[in-house]
């Protein structure tokens, strides 16, 4: 699988758990929930989101503030459950709920407000509840399952639909071109049965998005005199299945193979960044680079640097001491290149999922 281009990811990962502005939807009522949903109230549903910073390959999409990017959107699935007055039964887990109330509903964020159409309303009977699940970005999925992100029923072959029950089984393939890679976020809020009054802000559904992939940076240690011409990875999985998108647990990894990145332009001491499927790193997985290495001349009559071109070196990824890439984690590989070999000087791993917690978790400075 050939990869071309170089990451343009330049923003420093900072604040990781944040509340976006909560703005209620206000408009004339549109009845979009006929039977079997029963009587609906005059209270419209609105949304808020708590999200880690989405990281994508284009500078225009990199988040440097504390909210989702302007003019972006996420997809929502909503499940209506018919309750019984006086019953405390949680209908989310009884296996009979379907996402017919909202199926892949696009919710747009303009930098301050959330909007969607047509507007849905809360049930008039508070015993009737609605559960929600969402993913980001909206454009990653389409119901025909022709893209990188695909949703199926539990059998893994039947496309997810309005009549499907439960959460979707997710299959994902990392885009082959690094410029097309994007941060995939899953909502972890899906176990809730909501009513208008049960929302922390009445009528406003909060989503908590968390990273489904992991971020890997390759850095060249300063002072090595190396200029990277190209690099390649071997025996890395690029596709997998997530049976439970709330827990972000991936399995059934496929498409193990190599990819190459040519025409590398180093920004500072960063070679590239890429987003990968969480996985156990195989014993044979390796990084290979083609590089030139130069030295200052000690001959006054020939002061120009001495350049050794086309060095090829490789190193097993497990030799860096990390055996697994975990969802939401950020890995920074520091590489030292010498004659005919490369080695990992250090691997910096975030202490916790950078999409969880109230404190800022920043990427350590590269020395």
Could you list some keywords that capture this structure?
367 residues; mainly beta; Immunoglobulin-like; 2 domains; 5-stranded mixed β-sheet; disordered N terminus; disordered C terminus
Quick structural gist:
The protein is built from no helices and 25 strands. With 367 residues, it is mainly beta.
Report on this model:
The protein is mainly beta. It folds into two domains: 11-212, no CATH class; 215-349, Sandwich (Immunoglobulin-like), CATH 2.60.40. Helices cover 0% and strands 41% of the residues. The protein has strands at 3-4, 18-19, 40-44, 46-51, 72-81, 102-109, 114-115, 121-123, 129-136, 149-152, 169-173, 185-187, 204-211, 214-220, 226-236, 239-244, 249-254, 257-262, 270-276, 279-280, 286-295, 306-316, 324-325, 330-338, 341-349. A hairpin with a 4-residue loop joins β6 (102-109) and β7. The radius of gyration is 24 Å and the shape is elongated.
This entry's quaternary arrangement is single chain
Quickly count the helices.
0
Mean model confidence by pLDDT: 73
Q: Which word captures the global form?
A: elongated
Q: Please describe the biggest sheet, giving its number of strands, its sense, and whether it closes into a barrel.
A: 8 strands, mixed
| SS strand fraction | 35-45%
Structural class: mainly beta
Let me know the number of strands. 25
Q: Low-confidence segments, ≥5 residues, pLDDT <50?
A: 1-35, 50-66, 351-367
Q: What series of H and E elements makes up the topology? A: EEEEEEEEEEEEEEEEEEEEEEEEE
Overall helicity: under 10%
Number of domains: 2
Our Rg estimate from Cα atoms comes to: 24 Å
């Amino acid at each position: 699988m050939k990869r071309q281009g170089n990451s343009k990811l330049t923003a420093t990962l900072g604040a990781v758990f944040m509340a976006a502005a909560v703005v209620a939807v206000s408009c004339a009522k549109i009845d979009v929930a006929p039977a079997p949903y029963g009587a609906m109230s005059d209270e419209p549903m609105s949304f808020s989101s708590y999200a880690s910073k989405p990281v994508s390959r284009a500078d225009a999409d990199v988040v440097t503030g504390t909210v989702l990017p302007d003019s972006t959107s996420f997809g929502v699935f909503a499940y209506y459950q018919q309750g019984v007055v006086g019953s405390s039964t949680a209908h989310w887990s009884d296996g009979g709920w379907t996402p017919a109330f909202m199926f892949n509903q696009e919710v747009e964020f303009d930098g301050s407000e959330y909007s969607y159409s047509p507007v849905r309303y809360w049930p008039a009977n508070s015993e009737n509840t609605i559960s929600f699940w969402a993913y980001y970005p909206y454009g990653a999925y389409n119901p025909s399952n022709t893209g990188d992100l695909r949703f199926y029923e539990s059998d893994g072959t039947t496309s997810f639909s309005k009549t499907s029950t439960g959460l979707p089984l997710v299959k994902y393939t990392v885009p082959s071109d690094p410029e097309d890679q994007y941060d995939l976020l899953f909502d972890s809020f899906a176990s809730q049965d909501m009513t208008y009054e049960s929302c922390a802000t009445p009528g406003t559904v909060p989503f908590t998005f968390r990273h489904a992939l992991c971020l890997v940076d390759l850095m060249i240690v300063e002072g090595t005199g190396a200029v990277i011409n190209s690099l390649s990875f071997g025996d890395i999985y690029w596709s997998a299945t997530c049976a439970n998108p709330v827990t972000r647990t991936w399995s059934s990894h496929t498409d193990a193979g190599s990819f190459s990145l040519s025409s590398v332009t180093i920004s500072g001491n960063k070679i590239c960044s890429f987003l990968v499927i969480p996985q156990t790193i195989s014993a044979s997985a390796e990084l290979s680079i083609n590089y030139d290495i130069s030295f200052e001349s000690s001959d006054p009559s020939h002061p120009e640097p001495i350049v050794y071109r086309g060095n090829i070196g490789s190193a097993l990824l497990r030799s860096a001491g990390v055996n697994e890439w975990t969802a939401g984690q950020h890995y920074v590989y520091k590489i030292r290149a010498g004659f005919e070999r490369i080695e990992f000087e250090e691997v910096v791993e975030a202490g916790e999922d950078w999409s969880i917690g109230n404190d800022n978790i920043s990427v350590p400075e590269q020395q």
